[in-house]
Structure formats: structure tokens, C-alpha cells
Amino acid sequence: MRSAGRAGRSKTPGVRPARRRAARVLVPAGLAVLAVAGCAGPGPDDARDVVSALGDAVVAGDGAAACALLLPDAADALAEESGEPCAQAVTAPDGPLADLVATGRVVVEDVHVAGRQAQVVTADDTLFLAVSGDGWVVTAAGCTPREDRPYDCEVEA
Amino acid sequence: MSAGSGKGPGGVLGGLRASSLSLFFAVVFLASLVAQAVSGVAVFNADQRSAGLEPLTLGQYVLSSAFWVDVTENWQSEYLQFLLFITATVWFVQRGSPESKKLDQAGRESDEDQKVGEHATDDSPAWARTRGWRLTLYSRSLSLVMGAIFVGSWAAQSAAGAVAFSEERLRDLEDPVPWTEYLSMPDFWSRTFQNWQSEMLAVLSMVVLAIFLRERGSPESKPVGSSHEATGVEG
């Protein structure tokens, strides 16, 4: 896109030894960067664990622990919308995470990770997560799919 | 370049001067890549903050798919541009352009013109002196390598693009898309074609403008006093 668009026939002979050495160093280095890029940050298992921990906290009535797993903006939005502290709203029997623990435990069916975002699909709910520090936080939960539109989520920032 | 190129003064400075063209572009390339990373992380972090998410460090950003899709979409188009230019100029000519061969030289040319086989000289590369697959391969090695880098960069763009696109969708509370689906999506083709069109325009401009315009001392231009009709003449 932003090319100078050079042209013309080369008048120099081939690649010189020093440039070949540079190529031998740069190519593996580039591949290493891409490999590291693919492995950086927490993975799908960590996302699954966070969702399971969120479900366990809700089932146990430990609202503080559950809210600690939410993105702070999401926890604040939940408190504002419900009119009570996050720790109480998140564990309410008819609260936004009631679907997540409808069967008494979280059954994770699928996990998708793309860069610093993830989606965890459970038997009863769909949640979205983002990397925060060294781990995942839940950015949205209680989500219902909509045709050609973003999910409608009961908890979201 | 100036007349008498080839044997320059010895020593480190002489070596640097003899490779000054490569070094100049290497420095500009690295500076541009760093500048892209610095400006790119600012754009990315604006989206992160608006979603209430943590901003990335520069180090985290240069390892992200968002950075690499932007890098590789430009790389692939540059290598495609040169691949097409290298191969198209074998067969196609343009009267008056220094970027073209002479009008009667279109094609792969004779072994004598190309100094291969029995026409090779003492300093010809080893594979140019042979016959068979080595000569065939070496005779197309430039386009093969440029083509391989193009294909590799385009594949990397598609892979990084699929992840970056899904990451954006997840941030917007939408389902991610697999790589195979991403290949048929407008995001992939829009990124691709917006780069291709600009590369083709740049080459077209170079080929045509160089018929009438001059840059004194540049091998990409005809000598300033050359006729507009002169074809395949370099300054």
C-alpha cells in the first residue's frame, strides 16, 4: 500500500555472504517472534478455569469472589443496574448469572480464544473474557445470541 | 549509480559505501517498523480503554495479531508487486521506458545473451554453467523466492487477520470466525485489494513517468538527455 514502487533491472551480482548470514539469523528470529506471539498470555484452559471458578463462587454464595473475576467496569455496571453491591447482585437467585449455574455446576462446552479475548460457551450460558494482568477476567455474562447483532448480555461493561 | 562501480576503496568505510543502498533501506525499514509499532499500539490501546480493558505495552503489541496483520498485508503486496514486475518485464515492453527491455528483446532471450551453459564466463555462478534442472531452477530463482515470500506473507496475513478480526468481534460481544470462514470475508479481501491497487499504480507510474521524466544519476531513470523514444536505457 505504501510502496515506493521501484523498478529497473538489477546490475549487482547475487546475494553476498554477509547478507546470506543475515538471512540465516533474521528468518529464524522472525519465526520465533511469530511462535511467541501464538503462545503469549493465558490460554483456553485458563479461560475455562475462570468461568468454572465464577460458577463455583456463585453456587457457594461467595459474591466477593465472583465479582473479583469480573472486569471492574462490568462489576460496576452490574451494581449500578441492580441498585445493590455487585457481591449481592451477582449471587441473587434470579440474578444475571442464574443461567450459568442453572444445573448446579458449570459445564463448559466450548472455548474460543483470539488474541487477548475469549468466549466460553457453557451448557446454559455464553460468556466473554479478556486478558487482565496474567489471567482472564469476565467482560460479559448471561449472554443471549441475536441475529446479525452482538450478544445481549445481562452483565457487561 | 556512478560510473566505475564495482571495485571501491577498501576498509570498513569502503565496505559500507559499497553496500550503502542496502544499508539505507534497511535503516529506513527498521525505523518505519518501529514507528508503525509505536503508532499502532496507541490506536489499539484507544480501543482497549474504551472497552474498559488494560492497555498493552509496546512489547505485547508487537507480539499481537493486530500488529502482524498490518505488517504482513503490506509485505505481501510489496512482494507481489516485485514478483509481477520481475516476470512481466520478461514478456511485456514499453516503448521509451527505462524499466522495459528493448522492444525486440521480449522473452527469455538466448543462452548467449544470458551467459549460461557454454556461454558462461569465468565469474558466472556455478549453476549458470551447468545444464538441466540446476540451470532451470537458477534461471527462475529470483521470481521463485519473491513468489514464495509473497505467498508466505499473504498466508501470514490471513492467519493473523483471522485472529485479529475475531479478537475485535469478541471485544464487541460477537462470535469469532474460523480462519477458513475469514478467507471469504470482506475484511480479508479489503485489506488485500487496497494494497494491491496501490502497488500496481506505483509500478504503472514508474514505467510511464520514466518515459518523459528524468532523475539525473539514478539507474531508474534514463540519462537526462536521452530521447523519449529510447527504450531500455538506464542512467
Percent helix of chain B: 55-70%
Tell me the series of helices and strands of chain A, N- to C-terminal. HHHHHEEEEE
The helix content of chain A is 25-40%
Q: Main sheet of chain A, how many strands, which sense, barrel? A: 5 strands, antiparallel
Number of domains of chain A: 1
A few lines on this structure:
The complex is a heterodimer of chains A (157) and B (235). Chain A is an alpha+beta fold and 157 residues long.
Describe this structure in words.
The complex is a heterodimer of chains A (157) and B (235). With 157 residues, chain A is of the alpha+beta class. Chain A has one domain (44-156): Nuclear Transport Factor 2, Chain: A. Chain A is built from 5 helices and 5 strands. Chain A has helices at 17-39, 44-60, 63-68, 72-82, 86-89; strands spanning 108-114, 117-122, 126-132, 135-146, 149-156. In chain A, strands 1-2-3-4-5 form a 5-stranded antiparallel β-sheet. In chain A, strand 2 and strand 3 (126-132) form a beta hairpin. The radius of gyration of chain A is 24 Å and the shape is globular. Chain A starts with 16 loop residues before the first helix and ends with a strand. The model of chain A is unreliable at 1-23 and 33-39 (pLDDT under 50). Chain B is an all-alpha fold and 235 residues long. Chain B folds into 2 domains: 8-63; 64-235, no CATH class. Helices cover 61% and strands 0% of the residues of chain B. Chain B has helices spanning 11-18, 20-50, 58-62, 65-91, 111-114, 133-139, 141-171, 179-182, 186-212. In chain B, helix 4 runs antiparallel to helix 7 (141-171). The termini of chain B are close together. At the A-B interface, helix 1, helix 4, strand 2, strand 3 and strand 4 of A face helix 4, helix 7 and helix 9 of B.
